[in-house]
Amino acid sequence: xxxxxxxxxxxxxxxxxxxxxxxxxxxxxxxDRFGPLKGHDWKDRWRRRVEKxxxxxxxxxxxxxxxxxxxxxxxxxxxxxxxxxxxxxxxxSAQGRGHGRRLLHAIExxxxxxxxxxxxxxxxxxxxxxxxxxxAEGYQQLAQHFNWVKKIGPPGAxx
Length: 159
Ligand SMILES: CC(C)(COP(=O)(O)OP(=O)(O)OC[C@H]1O[C@@H](n2cnc3c(N)ncnc32)[C@H](O)[C@@H]1OP(=O)(O)O)[C@@H](O)C(=O)NCCC(=O)NCCS
Hints:
The protein has 159 residues and is an alpha+beta fold. The chain contains 5 helices and 5 strands; from the N terminus they run βαααβββαβα. It has a 5-stranded mixed β-sheet with strand order 1-2-3-4-5, sandwiched between helices. The longest helix has 15 residues, at 42-56. Bound molecules: coenzyme A. Coenzyme A is lined by residues 20-21, 24, 88-90, 95-101, 121, 123, 127-130, 132-133, 136.
């Protein structure tokens, strides 16, 4: 079953995000280099990202036999026909069984119904499972970008 998220889903949304993005997120590299930011490690930062998405975005959840297996979220600007998929995540225990593709199709249909004509999303260059999925689903590569980080504080602290 794919359905809109409700407030009781938030803990599982966070759990699945940490489990699925833990191995690939650059937020971990920040911790490796600088340590937690003001005491907040990559998990805290991801938790905040998911909480923010929960406030601001459309979230579709995939459940099977009452088990929360993954979700997709994003936003659409119907005035310009542009939708953006922010996060797509499937629990590692359930990956490779078509759930990611099902969630992608579901959010595409949702955004189409809400005025989107085109969709954008971002993935890391070396995230081959995701890139294969998007390629296979007809997404065209637009650009590659670098993620940069610089320590600027507290004042006087060594970098
Ligand atoms: C990317 C992700 C959502 C795919 O979900 P999934 O349920 O594992 O994928 P599916 O079983 O639906 O597979 C769909 C397609 O993805 C690709 N794919 C999935 N796993 C793959 C792997 N290990 N290696 C290469 N391609 C893979 C294939 O193209 C596959 O199609 P095929 O089975 O016809 O070959 C999931 O792996 C995930 O949550 N990864 C961590 C978070 C992430 O990277 N999210 C997307 C970032 S934008």
